[in-house]
Design brief:
This protein has no helices and nine strands. By secondary structure, it is mostly beta strands. It has a single domain, classed as Leucine-rich repeat, LRR (right-handed beta-alpha superhelix) (Alpha-Beta Horseshoe), CATH 3.80.10.10. The chain starts with 8 loop residues before the first strand and ends with a strand.
């Protein structure tokens, strides 16, 4: 999918995705690698109904909406590289502590319904 540099909307829901990995996390086998910015124009990303456990250091500079509903997310932190993120959907996950979560300056809606 690296041949889609102008992609603005991507729906990867219901795909059994486990990891979203940046290059800083070497040693992991990334299923979605946000670090090389293959999709730097991405505005909407739907990763709902997967098996993602950790959201850390995403790098999608144009992303406005991220849907992570119905995963196994236990922690979410370091979203500073998604500076345009406005809507973050995290309902039906395993998040017990948001003390390390720092939203982005443009975050307008945070969904945490369980």
């Amino acid at each position: 999918m690296s041949s889609l540099p102008d992609l603005i909307s991507l729906n990867l829901s219901n795909n059994c995705i486990i990891n979203i990995v940046s290059p800083a996390k070497k040693g992991h086998d990334p299923q979605i690698d946000s670090g090389d910015l293959k999709w730097k124009s991405l505005v909407y990303l739907d990763l709902s109904f997967n098996k993602i456990t950790d959201v850390d250091e995403l790098r999608f500079p144009q992303l406005k909406e991220l849907n992570l509903n119905n995963n196994e997310v236990k922690k979410i932190e370091n979203l500073e590289n998604c500076e345009n993120l406005e809507n973050l959907k995290l309902s039906n996950n395993l998040i017990a502590d948001l003390s390390k979560f720092r939203g982005t300056k443009n975050l307008k809606k945070l969904y945490l319904v369980n």
